[in-house]
């Protein structure tokens, strides 16, 4: 079957894809835990597999293409972790909406005050970059210039600050 695919037989390629698509999807999904991304990874796996088939040597075809799927899923997972988070909009100086009740306005104001107090309680080495990123909505580059830090250092401080917040803050503290 592999020789037929390498020779250009499209039908043989379809047979291989049909035979292994569920397995490749399961491998990708087991890593990425996202249905749509797992489908994309499965497609990329088959494309990579077709390109690499001429160099395939020997037994273990299922293991071979499973490794391709697994590596593709890991790459996608790493890529997702590297993407910077979008800044959270904490609009402290916002005007109340017309249809917003007085109670909602008071609750929103109290929440804003709790967030301000919580930010002030952050360890000092995180406080400045957190304010600059989330409140002032500055980029890593702008924060780096302001605090005389490398962009990677800013990124790391924000990462560690988020980790600290997850450990020390609870959602109930702000509601």
TrEMBL record:
Gene3D superfamilies listed in its UniProt record: 1.10.1740.10, Winged helix-like DNA-binding domain superfamily/Winged helix DNA-binding domain (1.10.10.10)
Domain RNA polymerase sigma factor 70 region 4 type: start-end pairs: 113-165
Presence of the UniProt keyword Chloroplast in the record: no
Domain of life: Bacteria
Domain RNA polymerase sigma-70 region as annotated: residue spans: 16-83
Entry keywords, A to Z: Sigma factor, Transcription, Transcription regulation
Pfam families to which the protein is assigned, alphabetical: Sigma70_r2, Sigma70_r4_2
Span list, region Disordered: 75-94
Keyword NADP: no
Transmembrane intervals: none
Matches recorded under PANTHER family: RNA POLYMERASE ECF-TYPE SIGMA FACTO, RNA POLYMERASE SIGMA FACTOR
Family from the record: Belongs to the sigma-70 factor family. ECF subfamily.
Protein name listed in UniProt: RNA polymerase sigma factor
Naturally occurring in which organism (per UniProt): Halobacillus amylolyticus
Classification of source organism: Bacteria, Bacillati, Bacillota, Bacilli, Bacillales
